[in-house]
Amino acid sequence: MRVFTSLDCLLHNPPFEILDGDKSEWLESPARIEKIKQVLIKSERFKFEQFIRKNTLLISKLYTTDGTQFEKKVDIRVSEGRSSSGVIPETFLHFNLVDSDDFSTHSVAQVGRFAFDMTSTITKDTWKSAYAAVQCVLSGANAIMNGGKTAYALVRPPGHHSTQDLCGGYCYLNHAAIAANYLSGRKVILDVDYHHGNGTEKIVKGNEDILYVSLHADDDYPYYTGHRNAGNAINIPLPRTTTTDEYILALQKAISHHILPFRPDFLIISFGVDTYNEDPIAGFSNVDRGMYTQMGRQISQSKCPSLWIQEGGYHMETLGDIVKDVLSSYMD
Ligand code: SP5
Ligand code: ZN
């Protein structure tokens, strides 16, 4: 399996986050990527490559239909003079707050305007990492477009919570949506991250070439989305008590009832592994390590070229092994 990653993905490193109201270490750390790499690199089945494509214009064209908003968002990423700890969004432009587009130039307002929660700190390195992540994803997309069976974008920060103009949940640019818009033909985005990919659902909404299918925890972050199917989004909320067997059954059903009938040319996997029972921010207490080899096997039944994009997964001790379990069993 070709693995696309970049050292630039390690740069973004906010000093802390607010978790359950308390100051806590930034869980979505650069070490996550290093851990996964350490495990995969020991196996000859994974071939590491640097990204090959460099094109800002391409990203903006793919990312959003509203170029202006995107440009504003990029501005806040690249502006100089930020403290090394970055700016934490803390006052948000709630949809009910103002009547007109009358925005402040204060740095808190600049980041709050483009964020929906506090876990989207903007540091001097955020844009560099987010940009590199997109390049890795596009390189992976090229690999499967050119006849490859599968590719893995080992990237951070993750993407599936970010909408066209909003950051949140550690996410800045939506990799799965970018890949889906980039690839031609019919695409399924299968989102197995513990959390609902609200951003992906929102961006691909109404695009009939794309089907979004998500398995996620009911009644957990991001709270307001993912409760029911809508248009091209199949949402499968699962209780926190979900066991390994129940999860695999739900995945099987999602594949046979939704993914296969859609007849996709490409499968994009929003590959979060925070479903694991020891994950520090997630809550599936009955999902064990055995789930991950089964997950890979199930997904291989889709029999179409696949692009795996790293999303969440925060249990550092097992992170690399879990990722390897899924990808190896997918290839078997
Ligand atoms: C990409 C991704 O996985 N983003 C997830 C961001 C989740 N942030 C909010 C977490 C809220 C956790 N609350 C329960 C913690 C248990 N102590
Ligand atoms: Zn997650």
Short account of what is shown:
With 332 residues, the chain is α/β, with parallel strands linked by helices. The chain has helices at residues 30-40, 56-63, 67-78, 107-112, 126-145, 175-182, 198-204, 244-262, 290-300, 319-331, and strands spanning 2-5, 17-19, 22-24, 47-50, 150-153, 187-191, 210-217, 233-238, 266-271, 306-310. Strands 4-1-5-10-9-6-7-8 form an 8-stranded parallel β-sheet, sandwiched between helices. A two-stranded antiparallel ribbon has the order 2-3.
What does this structure look like?
The chain has 332 residues and is of the alpha/beta class. It is 35% helix and 14% strand. It has 10 helices and 10 strands. It has helices at 30-40, 56-63, 67-78, 107-112, 126-145, 175-182, 198-204, 244-262, 290-300, 319-331, and strands at residues 2-5, 17-19, 22-24, 47-50, 150-153, 187-191, 210-217, 233-238, 266-271, 306-310. An 8-stranded parallel sheet has the order 4-1-5-10-9-6-7-8, sandwiched between helices. A two-stranded antiparallel sheet has the order 2-3. Helix 9 (290-300) links the parallel strand 9 and strand 10. Helix 8 (244-262) runs parallel beside helix 9 and helix 9 packs parallel to helix 10 (319-331). The termini are close together. Residues 60-72 and 77-81 have low confidence and may be disordered. Bound molecules: N-[3-({4-[(3-aminopropyl)amino]butyl}amino)propyl]acetamide and zinc ion.
